[in-house]
Amino acid sequence: MTTFSNTSQIKILIVEDDEFMQAILQKFLSKTYEIIIKPTGMDALAFMQSGNLPDLIISDLNTPKLGGLGLIEQVKLSDFFNSVPIIILSGEESSEKRIKCLDTGADDFIVKPFNPAELQSRIRVVLRRSGKLTADL
Questions:
Q1: SMART domains attached here (predicted)?
Q2: E-assigned strands of 3-130?
Q3: Which phi and psi angles does 67 have, rounded to 5°?
Q4: Is the peptide bond before 113 cis (omega within 30 degrees of 0)?
């Protein structure tokens, strides 16, 4: 079985305005990762600009004050934040939206409702690809 030795030090910034979804993500992810939740893209950018660099951003596509697509654009334009991987969560199943987000710089796109175990797996894949997570075989 594969284990991951350094997950407790991984910081995930969640950008989600829905309190129910915040609670679900907190419940499932805080057992493994350090979780920071911000309700808007602007709050997330301000948090990062104040010196906080997450290992991963998970953002809803439709948050107020800078949605997921705008957040991707801002993060990827920044010399300081452009290496932070981004996973978009959305209730929108539009293939066009998924393609736009991925082409803009998102590392993955997950449609809500989602299976928490699948989200955990996709997080591990993105973190391994970015070099933030190592597997112990």
A1: REC (SM00448)
A2: 3-4, 11-15, 34-38, 56-60, 86-90, 108-111
A3: -75, -175
A4: yes
The one-letter amino acid code at 29 reads: L
Condensed to tens digits (0 to 9), the pLDDT of residues 44-77 reads 999 999 999 999 999 999 999 999 999 999 999 9
Distance in angstroms (rounded) separating the CA atoms of residues 38 and 24? 14
Q: How far is CA 111 from CA 44, 93, 97, 118, 137, in A?
A: 21, 6, 11, 11, 30
Domains of the chain (ranges plus CATH)? Answer: 3-136 (3.40.50.2300)
Nearest to 24 by CA among 96, 112, 106, 88: 112
**What number of CA atoms fall less than 13 Å from residue 18's CA on the CB side?**
13
First-last CA distance in the chain: 7
